[in-house]
Design goal:
Helices cover 41% and strands 16% of the residues. With 332 residues, the chain is of the alpha/beta class. The chain has two domains: 207 residues, 3-Layer(aba) Sandwich (Rossmann fold); 106 residues, Rossmann fold. The strands form two sheets. A six-stranded mixed beta sheet has the order 1-2-10-7-8-9, sandwiched between helices. The protein is globular.
Length: 332
């Protein structure tokens, strides 16, 4: 088993790091209870920024080491992960093909799908998210028959290797906390495909054990997300011979804040996106961060996060997706 040494693991430096960590002064005053800070991972740099860029630093380094010619990945039509993968592949000269499923908001050529087209990345469309993996595997077989070496990245880059991006993130916020002479009590973030949360859970144990981490579900079932986090955590520890004594209680996924489901533009989300824009000049995307902020505000308002706590919110990016929801915002 390889020894875990974060600095020695192959990595491509795509991101502008460290990302800023700032107090949301007007939101804190508006809520009048906890002190709310934001970690601006919407400013990681590539393709309008976002959390997936951190994962791709490790995943695409692995693709190059394996001699891959083309990267395959999949997601929803408005997928931030797919856009960031395509952009990072362009930067290092790898071909990229995307498998995208239909969206609850229709087929407007705007937001991330417009940017995918500007990148001239090859897109394969399927009807349902349940069809994406099989289609991706079929495409990989065709590429192999053509003598090419495909590299498959699953939804959200959620693998033991992708999780390294958010292990590094936890090291980064621990260092920023020390520089600020400030300890964060809670880290709140959106959780979906589980890779970001797996990295956070692992990184907490390694670098910031005193912080409590809370994932806000954005559409997938709670038990499904927890099971996927557990799987990635287990594979990660096995790969690097670690025993971090991670318990079930370390993996917190809160439901009830995503409306009718993944990507559905709930009224609460729309109201909160407008609130944060008008108080802080920060735009949250409608699929992940808008819904996670609904959860954060509710937890603070009901004092499930105690008064005077220092709370850090992960803004995981995805801003271009907001343009795909123009009709939802204009009706409210």
């Amino acid at each position: 088993m390889p020894k875990f040494d974060l600095e020695s693991i192959p990595r491509i430096n795509h991101c502008l790091l460290p990302t800023p960590l700032i107090l949301m002064e007007r939101l804190t005053e508006h809520l009048g209870k906890a002190n709310v800070f934001v970690k601006r991972d919407d400013l990681t740099g590539m393709a309008f920024g976002g959390n997936k860029n951190r994962k791709l630093e490790f995943l695409l380094a692995d693709a190059l080491l394996k001699g891959s010619h083309v990267v395959l990945t999949e997601g929803a039509l408005t997928s931030n992960h797919c856009l960031q993968t395509a952009a990072c592949c362009a930067r290092i000269g790898l071909d990229c093909e995307l498998i995208l499923s239909d969206s609850v908001i229709g087929d407007q050529i705007t937001g991330n799908i417009l940017l995918d087209q500007i990148l001239d990345v090859k897109i394969h469309r399927v009807k349902s998210s349940s069809d994406r993996k099989q289609r991706m595997e079929e495409i990989a077989e065709v590429l192999q028959d053509e003598g090419k070496v495909p590299y498959i990245i699953p939804t959200g880059g959620s693998t033991k290797l992708g999780a390294l991006g958010y292990v590094l993130f936890m090291k980064e916020i621990a260092e920023q906390s020390e520089e600020m002479n400030l300890t964060f009590d809670y880290l709140v973030f959106p959780t979906g495909s589980a890779g970001t949360q797996a990295g956070i859970v692992l990184g907490k144990k390694l670098y910031y054990p005193e912080i409590e981490t809370m994932g806000i579900g954005v559409g997938d079932g709670r038990e499904e997300v927890i099971a996927e986090v557990q799987k990635i955590v287990s594979e990660f520890q096995e790969e690097w011979s670690l025993d971090l004594a991670i318990r079930d209680t370390d993996i917190v996924v809160l439901e009830g804040y995503y409306g009718q489901g993944y990507g559905d533009p709930s009224k609460d989300m729309i109201d909160v996106v407008k609130l944060i824009a008008q108080l802080e000049g920060i735009f949250l995307d409608p699929v992940y961060n808008g819904k996670a902020m609904v959860g954060l505000i509710d937890l603070i308002s009901h004092e499930e996060i105690p008064v005077d706590s220092n709370v850090l919110f992960l803004h995981s990016g995805g801003g271009p997706a907001i343009f795909s929801y123009a009709d939802a915002f204009s009706k409210k």
